[in-house]
Design goal:
By secondary structure, this protein is of the alpha/beta class. The protein has 18 helices and 17 strands. A hairpin with a 5-residue loop joins strand 5 and strand 6. Bound molecules: iron/sulfur cluster (SF4).
């Protein structure tokens, strides 16, 4: 029997189509090797769990044996009022859950506890004293375990706990509303998605792939990409996204790019107004005139004119030193391990890197300090810095908080506010359009003819290489990391030049 498990619910939240495709998709098209970055995350999770478990004291370990045997033993243990059960199995009809811990409460009922290698709440910031809010996938997972405990007669409460990356216990109230403006409770949300997961798993409903950032780490990437290309799906258009695609499919019966390009925006907006007046507020919900025009322009460029467009003249600073800058960091341990700069001074070009060769605060601080010393050494007012996306700015603000003696917050802010320090992504997004489905640096630089030396260039893989390098100190891995970063910096240069030519 195919059970609804925590991982099915997790998959659904990541991509609702994956649940269906895993069972009914063309299995021969599925990538069988696990993505090394996904593997790294998994290994880190396992290590963290082992660390937490080693500090638990006495508990009943049910990790071994078959699922059925573990289920029998879990029920017995709960009947015998065992205080703490590790890796017990809960089963009821088509639901299956394996909570990391089952903890007995004073009233002899049980609470599910799961060990996670992330923060307990979303957006929690210890330094700012911000608590954050419950994470969707943690809430849904705890709801499943709590649901099973209730169905089996071992719970009356509606709560669960997460033991987070710091070993802190964070309680989840599962019947509280999901947000200030969302009345739906976590429990109602869980019931709703559980129902849909069940439909998809039974093939009673079928949904479509949709190209999104998350796809790159998914084993169905090639398969779904092929489907989207062949069917001319609307998610090929940059930023259009799954929910707008579904709305356009359902409300206007627009199934592909050709039909989309036939749309008359004024007519569509009139129709939306009429629907609204007759009480149908859901019609093309969150699709406004401007976003529709923007998507149509992008579709036109992608499928018909096939040429990039600049809507305004793009002027860059005339300076002697141009720096193309990119950082590499490992979010799993919040560690910045490389600041890379490709420097162009007239016809002289060179790559400069500030790389940590060990994981320590000292090493992270030292390379950041060196980066700023390098910036200070440049002729002031005669250099410009180019980077892609806000990640560098956000990360530098975090580093400043951590190493405030390296540079003041005012100086970091002044650096990024300097008109000569330019986020090319903002220009790309606001002032241009391209005949590609993604406006990532990789997609745009590749379109402009640049190629990376690495066969599988990716930021996620660079993190995995860095972890491997730390383990082995293998210099060939370090070389690969540096070449990848240098090529990212060079790609930024290619893009800047390409934008200038537009
Ligand atoms: S490739 Fe993308 S659309 Fe396809 S199943 Fe994976 S996440 Fe979903």
């Amino acid at each position: 029997m195919a059970y609804i498990t925590a991982s099915k619910l997790y998959d659904y939240l990541q991509c609702p189509h994956k649940v269906w495709r895993d069972i009914y998709g063309p299995q021969e098209e599925k990538i069988t090797e696990t993505n090394p970055f996904v593997e790294l995350l998994w290994e880190k999770g396992v290590k963290h769990e082992e660390k937490i478990v080693s500090r638990l004291g006495d508990f009943l370990n049910l990790k071994e044996d078959s699922i059925d045997e573990r289920f029998q033993k879990t029920i017995e243990a709960m009947k015998n009022k065992t205080p703490l059960i590790y890796q017990g199995v809960l089963k009821y009809e088509n639901l299956l859950g394996i909570p990391d811990l089952l903890k007995k409460l004073p009233d002899n009922t049980y609470m599910p506890v799961d060990i996670k290698s992330g923060m307990g709440f979303e957006g929690a910031d210890e330094e700012e004293g911000e608590e954050g809010k419950p994470k969707k996938h943690y809430s849904v997972q705890l709801c499943l375990y709590n649901d099973l405990l209730k169905k089996l007669g071992f719970a009356i409460h509606n709560s669960g706990k997460i033991i987070d990356i710091h070993g802190d216990e964070v309680e989840y109230d599962l019947i509280s509303p999901m947000g200030i403006r969302t009345k739906e409770t976590w429990w109602e949300f869980y019931e709703r998605i559980k129902k849909h997961v069940d439909f998809l798993m039974r093939n009673a409903d079928k949904n479509k792939p949709a190209l999104a950032g998350i796809c790159k780490l998914c084993p169905w990437y090639n398969s779904c990409k092929k489907w989207c290309e062949t069917t001319k799906d609307l998610t090929n258009v940059f930023y259009l996204g799954r929910s707008n695609r579904d709305k356009l499919n359902e409300d206007l019966f627009v199934e592909n790019i050709d039909e989309f390009l036939e749309l008359d925006v004024e007519e569509v907006m009139k129709q939306k107004e009429t629907e609204k007046k007759s009480g149908n507020k859901e019609f093309l919900f969150r699709i406004g005139k401007d976003s529709l025009i923007k998507s149509l322009k992008r579709a036109e460029i992608l499928y018909r004119t096939k040429k990039p467009v600049a809507y305004e003249t793009i002027v860059f600073p005339k300076v002697n030193y141009e720096l193309f800058f990119d950082i590499e960091d490992d979010p799993t341990q919040e560690f910045v391990y490389l600041h890379g700069v490709y420097e162009r001074n007239g016809d002289k070009e060179r790559f400069i890197d500030f790389t940590a060769t060990e994981i320590s605060d000292e090493a992270e601080k030292e390379i950041w300090q060196k980066f700023w010393q390098y910036i200070e050494s440049l002729p002031q007012d005669d250099f410009a810095v180019y980077y892609y996306s806000h990640h560098e700015k956000t990360t530098y603000k975090k580093l400043q908080k951590q190493y405030s003696d390296v540079i003041s917050l005012e100086k970091v802010e002044a650096f990024f506010e300097n008109p000569n320090v330019i986020d090319l992504y903002k220009i790309v997004q606001k002032q241009t359009d391209w005949p590609v489905g993604s406006y990532s640096l990789k997609a745009l630089a590749t379109y402009l003819g640049f190629s990376w030396r690495d066969e599988t260039p990716s930021g996620a893989l660079s993190i995995q290489w860095f972890n491997k390098y730390m383990e082995t100190k293998d210099q060939s891995i370090l070389k690969r990391i540096l070449e990848y970063n240098e090529d990212d910096c060079k790609a930024t240069m290619i893009l800047k030049d390409g934008l200038e030519k537009l």
